Amino acid sequence: MGNKVKFGLKNVHYAVVTEAGGEVEYGTPKRIPGAVNLTLDAAGESVQFYADDMVYYEENTNDGYTGSLEMALIPDDFRKDVLGEIEDTNGALIENKDAKAKHFALMFEFDGDAKKTRHVLYYVLASRPSVSGSTRTNTKEPQTETLNITARPAPDTGDVKARVKQGETPYDDFYTAVYLKNAVTNTPDETALTFDKNSPADITVGVTSTGTTAVKNVLLDGVPIGGAYLTVAGEDVTIDQAVFAELNEGSYTVTVEFTRGNAVAVTVNVTDSSE
Protein backbone atom coordinates (compact mmCIF):
# COMPACT_ATOMS: atom_id res chain seq x y z
CA MET A 1 0.00 0.00 0.00
CA GLY A 2 1.56 3.28 -1.09
CA ASN A 3 1.34 6.77 0.33
CA LYS A 4 -1.89 8.53 -0.60
CA VAL A 5 -2.52 10.99 2.21
CA LYS A 6 -0.28 12.49 4.87
CA PHE A 7 -1.93 13.31 8.19
CA GLY A 8 -1.26 13.21 11.89
CA LEU A 9 1.89 15.32 12.37
CA LYS A 10 3.80 13.88 15.32
CA ASN A 11 7.19 13.47 17.00
CA VAL A 12 8.18 17.05 16.26
CA HIS A 13 11.62 17.87 17.70
CA TYR A 14 14.05 20.77 17.42
CA ALA A 15 17.82 20.91 17.89
CA VAL A 16 19.55 24.27 18.31
CA VAL A 17 22.29 25.12 15.81
CA THR A 18 25.66 26.52 16.85
CA GLU A 19 28.22 27.64 14.26
CA ALA A 20 31.97 27.74 14.75
CA GLY A 21 34.80 27.80 12.23
CA GLY A 22 32.39 27.50 9.33
CA GLU A 23 30.87 24.26 10.65
CA VAL A 24 27.36 23.69 11.94
CA GLU A 25 26.82 21.69 15.13
CA TYR A 26 23.49 20.55 16.53
CA GLY A 27 22.35 20.30 20.13
CA THR A 28 20.42 17.39 21.57
CA PRO A 29 16.90 17.28 20.06
CA LYS A 30 14.03 18.37 22.27
CA ARG A 31 10.42 17.35 21.68
CA ILE A 32 7.74 19.93 20.85
CA PRO A 33 4.44 18.60 22.25
CA GLY A 34 1.11 19.53 20.74
CA ALA A 35 2.14 19.84 17.09
CA VAL A 36 -0.91 20.47 14.89
CA ASN A 37 0.11 21.20 11.32
CA LEU A 38 3.20 21.74 9.16
CA THR A 39 3.15 23.32 5.71
CA LEU A 40 6.20 23.58 3.49
CA ASP A 41 6.48 25.18 0.05
CA ALA A 42 9.58 24.72 -2.08
CA ALA A 43 11.64 27.92 -2.44
CA GLY A 44 13.80 28.67 -5.46
CA GLU A 45 13.54 29.88 -9.01
CA SER A 46 14.22 28.86 -12.54
CA VAL A 47 17.29 30.55 -14.05
CA GLN A 48 17.28 30.76 -17.84
CA PHE A 49 20.07 31.94 -20.16
CA TYR A 50 19.20 32.72 -23.75
CA ALA A 51 21.61 32.37 -26.69
CA ASP A 52 21.27 31.50 -30.36
CA ASP A 53 17.65 32.65 -30.13
CA MET A 54 16.77 29.85 -27.68
CA VAL A 55 17.02 28.80 -24.03
CA TYR A 56 20.70 27.90 -24.03
CA TYR A 57 20.97 26.97 -20.36
CA GLU A 58 18.38 26.44 -17.64
CA GLU A 59 18.75 25.62 -13.96
CA ASN A 60 16.37 25.37 -11.03
CA THR A 61 17.83 26.69 -7.80
CA ASN A 62 17.11 25.07 -4.43
CA ASP A 63 16.64 27.66 -1.71
CA GLY A 64 14.98 25.22 0.67
CA TYR A 65 11.43 25.72 1.90
CA THR A 66 9.15 28.33 3.40
CA GLY A 67 6.11 27.51 5.47
CA SER A 68 4.57 27.43 8.91
CA LEU A 69 4.44 25.23 11.99
CA GLU A 70 1.22 25.30 13.99
CA MET A 71 1.12 23.96 17.53
CA ALA A 72 -1.17 24.00 20.51
CA LEU A 73 1.27 26.12 22.50
CA ILE A 74 4.87 27.14 21.86
CA PRO A 75 6.92 25.59 24.70
CA ASP A 76 8.87 27.91 26.99
CA ASP A 77 12.06 25.98 26.23
CA PHE A 78 11.64 26.76 22.53
CA ARG A 79 11.02 30.42 23.27
CA LYS A 80 14.25 30.59 25.28
CA ASP A 81 16.42 28.27 23.17
CA VAL A 82 15.39 29.50 19.73
CA LEU A 83 13.49 32.79 19.89
CA GLY A 84 15.91 34.32 22.39
CA GLU A 85 13.45 35.13 25.16
CA ILE A 86 14.99 35.46 28.62
CA GLU A 87 13.60 34.09 31.89
CA ASP A 88 14.15 36.49 34.78
CA THR A 89 14.63 35.66 38.45
CA ASN A 90 10.86 35.72 39.00
CA GLY A 91 10.14 33.19 36.27
CA ALA A 92 8.80 35.72 33.75
CA LEU A 93 9.72 35.33 30.08
CA ILE A 94 11.03 38.57 28.61
CA GLU A 95 11.05 39.39 24.88
CA ASN A 96 13.70 42.01 24.17
CA LYS A 97 14.09 44.05 20.99
CA ASP A 98 17.74 42.97 20.67
CA ALA A 99 17.01 39.24 20.97
CA LYS A 100 18.45 37.21 18.09
CA ALA A 101 16.63 34.10 16.96
CA LYS A 102 18.78 31.01 16.49
CA HIS A 103 18.74 28.53 13.66
CA PHE A 104 17.64 25.02 14.49
CA ALA A 105 17.07 21.63 12.92
CA LEU A 106 13.44 20.53 12.72
CA MET A 107 12.59 16.82 12.95
CA PHE A 108 9.16 15.27 12.42
CA GLU A 109 7.05 12.51 10.90
CA PHE A 110 3.49 11.93 9.71
CA ASP A 111 1.27 9.27 11.25
CA GLY A 112 -0.47 8.67 7.93
CA ASP A 113 2.77 7.89 6.07
CA ALA A 114 2.64 4.21 5.11
CA LYS A 115 6.45 4.01 5.19
CA LYS A 116 6.63 5.86 8.57
CA THR A 117 9.33 8.12 7.16
CA ARG A 118 11.14 10.45 9.54
CA HIS A 119 12.35 13.84 8.30
CA VAL A 120 14.88 16.48 9.31
CA LEU A 121 15.28 20.02 8.00
CA TYR A 122 18.83 21.14 8.77
CA TYR A 123 18.83 24.94 8.93
CA VAL A 124 15.53 26.46 10.00
CA LEU A 125 14.74 29.96 11.21
CA ALA A 126 11.45 30.93 12.86
CA SER A 127 9.87 34.35 13.04
CA ARG A 128 8.22 35.67 16.19
CA PRO A 129 4.67 34.32 16.54
CA SER A 130 1.66 36.61 16.43
CA VAL A 131 -0.35 37.13 19.61
CA SER A 132 -4.10 36.59 19.37
CA GLY A 133 -7.03 35.55 21.50
CA SER A 134 -10.79 35.66 21.65
CA THR A 135 -13.39 35.98 24.34
CA ARG A 136 -15.12 32.88 25.68
CA THR A 137 -18.43 31.94 24.04
CA ASN A 138 -20.88 29.08 24.46
CA THR A 139 -18.62 26.91 22.31
CA LYS A 140 -14.99 26.13 23.04
CA GLU A 141 -12.60 26.50 20.12
CA PRO A 142 -8.97 25.70 20.93
CA GLN A 143 -6.52 28.51 20.17
CA THR A 144 -3.25 27.57 18.50
CA GLU A 145 0.06 29.35 17.90
CA THR A 146 1.82 29.46 14.54
CA LEU A 147 5.45 30.05 13.61
CA ASN A 148 6.40 31.15 10.11
CA ILE A 149 9.57 29.27 9.19
CA THR A 150 12.21 29.18 6.48
CA ALA A 151 14.40 26.12 5.89
CA ARG A 152 17.59 26.92 3.99
CA PRO A 153 20.59 24.80 2.93
CA ALA A 154 23.03 24.27 5.81
CA PRO A 155 25.95 26.66 5.22
CA ASP A 156 28.64 24.01 5.72
CA THR A 157 27.22 21.10 3.72
CA GLY A 158 24.52 22.61 1.50
CA ASP A 159 22.14 19.89 2.71
CA VAL A 160 18.52 21.02 3.05
CA LYS A 161 16.65 17.94 4.20
CA ALA A 162 17.02 14.24 4.92
CA ARG A 163 14.51 11.45 5.39
CA VAL A 164 14.86 7.98 6.83
CA LYS A 165 12.40 5.12 6.28
CA GLN A 166 11.45 2.53 8.88
CA GLY A 167 13.91 -0.36 8.87
CA GLU A 168 16.92 1.71 7.84
CA THR A 169 19.88 1.92 10.23
CA PRO A 170 19.35 5.46 11.62
CA TYR A 171 15.59 5.03 12.15
CA ASP A 172 15.29 3.79 15.73
CA ASP A 173 17.65 6.42 17.17
CA PHE A 174 16.53 9.19 14.82
CA TYR A 175 15.37 11.56 17.56
CA THR A 176 18.41 11.17 19.82
CA ALA A 177 20.68 13.22 17.53
CA VAL A 178 20.36 15.11 14.25
CA TYR A 179 21.18 12.70 11.44
CA LEU A 180 24.05 13.84 9.22
CA LYS A 181 25.09 12.44 5.85
CA ASN A 182 27.01 9.15 6.27
CA ALA A 183 26.73 9.62 10.02
CA VAL A 184 28.53 7.44 12.54
CA THR A 185 26.21 4.86 14.07
CA ASN A 186 26.72 4.19 17.80
CA THR A 187 25.41 0.95 19.30
CA PRO A 188 25.59 -0.08 22.98
CA ASP A 189 27.27 -3.43 23.62
CA GLU A 190 24.59 -4.12 26.25
CA THR A 191 21.25 -2.39 26.69
CA ALA A 192 20.82 -3.33 30.38
CA LEU A 193 23.35 -3.35 33.23
CA THR A 194 23.07 -4.15 36.95
CA PHE A 195 24.50 -2.31 39.95
CA ASP A 196 24.43 -4.27 43.22
CA LYS A 197 24.58 -2.01 46.28
CA ASN A 198 25.82 -4.99 48.32
CA SER A 199 28.78 -5.46 46.00
CA PRO A 200 29.36 -2.05 44.37
CA ALA A 201 31.54 -1.64 41.29
CA ASP A 202 32.02 0.96 38.58
CA ILE A 203 29.55 0.76 35.70
CA THR A 204 30.99 0.65 32.17
CA VAL A 205 28.82 1.48 29.18
CA GLY A 206 30.46 -0.18 26.20
CA VAL A 207 29.74 1.29 22.77
CA THR A 208 30.64 0.17 19.27
CA SER A 209 30.84 2.92 16.61
CA THR A 210 31.09 2.71 12.83
CA GLY A 211 33.48 5.67 12.68
CA THR A 212 35.45 8.16 14.73
CA THR A 213 33.55 9.96 17.47
CA ALA A 214 33.98 11.08 21.08
CA VAL A 215 31.80 11.30 24.16
CA LYS A 216 30.13 14.71 24.52
CA ASN A 217 27.88 14.24 27.54
CA VAL A 218 26.64 11.60 29.98
CA LEU A 219 23.22 11.85 31.62
CA LEU A 220 21.42 9.94 34.35
CA ASP A 221 17.64 10.08 33.83
CA GLY A 222 18.15 13.17 31.68
CA VAL A 223 20.39 15.04 34.14
CA PRO A 224 24.11 15.48 33.32
CA ILE A 225 26.39 13.57 35.68
CA GLY A 226 28.58 16.09 37.47
CA GLY A 227 31.16 15.78 40.21
CA ALA A 228 31.65 12.08 39.52
CA TYR A 229 34.75 10.20 38.48
CA LEU A 230 34.33 9.55 34.78
CA THR A 231 36.71 7.70 32.51
CA VAL A 232 36.26 7.94 28.76
CA ALA A 233 38.18 5.42 26.66
CA GLY A 234 37.26 5.73 23.00
CA GLU A 235 33.49 5.39 22.86
CA ASP A 236 33.25 3.50 26.17
CA VAL A 237 32.31 5.30 29.39
CA THR A 238 33.08 4.19 32.94
CA ILE A 239 30.98 5.79 35.69
CA ASP A 240 32.16 5.70 39.29
CA GLN A 241 30.14 3.49 41.63
CA ALA A 242 29.41 6.49 43.89
CA VAL A 243 26.90 7.76 41.33
CA PHE A 244 24.67 4.74 41.93
CA ALA A 245 25.46 3.85 45.55
CA GLU A 246 23.01 6.35 47.03
CA LEU A 247 20.18 5.63 44.61
CA ASN A 248 17.08 3.72 45.62
CA GLU A 249 16.53 0.31 44.10
CA GLY A 250 14.96 0.54 40.68
CA SER A 251 15.72 1.19 37.01
CA TYR A 252 17.57 4.25 35.73
CA THR A 253 18.53 5.40 32.24
CA VAL A 254 22.10 6.36 31.37
CA THR A 255 22.35 8.30 28.11
CA VAL A 256 25.68 8.84 26.38
CA GLU A 257 25.80 11.64 23.80
CA PHE A 258 28.52 11.78 21.14
CA THR A 259 30.12 14.47 19.02
CA ARG A 260 29.13 12.45 15.94
CA GLY A 261 26.23 10.09 15.46
CA ASN A 262 23.33 9.08 17.64
CA ALA A 263 23.20 8.98 21.41
CA VAL A 264 22.79 5.62 23.14
CA ALA A 265 20.59 4.81 26.14
CA VAL A 266 21.30 2.00 28.59
CA THR A 267 19.12 0.84 31.51
CA VAL A 268 20.94 0.43 34.83
CA ASN A 269 19.04 -1.73 37.34
CA VAL A 270 20.03 -0.86 40.92
CA THR A 271 19.57 -3.80 43.30
CA ASP A 272 20.64 -4.87 46.80
CA SER A 273 21.45 -8.59 47.15
CA SER A 274 21.79 -8.28 50.96
CA GLU A 275 18.06 -7.88 51.37
Describe this structure in words.
It contains 2 helices and 23 strands. By secondary structure, it is mostly beta strands. It has 2 domains: 9-176; 186-271, Immunoglobulin-like. Strands 1, 2, 3, 4, 7, 10, 11, 12 and 13 form a 9-stranded antiparallel sheet that branches. Strands 15-23-22-18-19 form a 5-stranded mixed sheet, with no helix packed on it. β8 (86-87) and β9 form a beta hairpin. The N and C termini lie far apart (55 Å).
Keywords:
275 residues, mainly beta, Immunoglobulin-like, 2 domains, 9-stranded antiparallel sheet, 5-stranded mixed sheet, 23 strands
> What letter string, H or E per element, gives the SSE order?
EEEEEEEHEEEEEEEEEEEEEEHEE
The largest β sheet comes out as:
9 strands, antiparallel
Distance between the termini: 55 Å
* Structural class by sheet pairing and helices: mainly beta
Question: Helix count, per DSSP?
Answer: 2
Structural domain count: 2
Question: Percent of residues in helical segments?
Answer: under 10%
General form: globular
Compact summary:
By secondary structure, the chain is mainly β.
Topology:
Elements: E1 9-20, E2 23-26, E3 30-31, E4 35-42, E5 46-51, E6 54-60, E7 65-71, H1 76-81, E8 86-87, E9 93-94, E10 104-110, E11 118-126, E12 145-151, E13 161-164, E14 186-188, E15 192-196, E16 203-205, E17 207-209, E18 215-220, E19 223-224, E20 230-233, E21 236-239, H2 242-245, E22 250-258, E23 264-271
Parallel strand pairs: 15-23
Antiparallel strand pairs: 1-2, 1-3, 1-10, 4-7, 5-6, 7-12, 8-9, 10-11, 11-12, 11-13, 14-17, 16-21, 18-19, 18-22, 20-21, 22-23
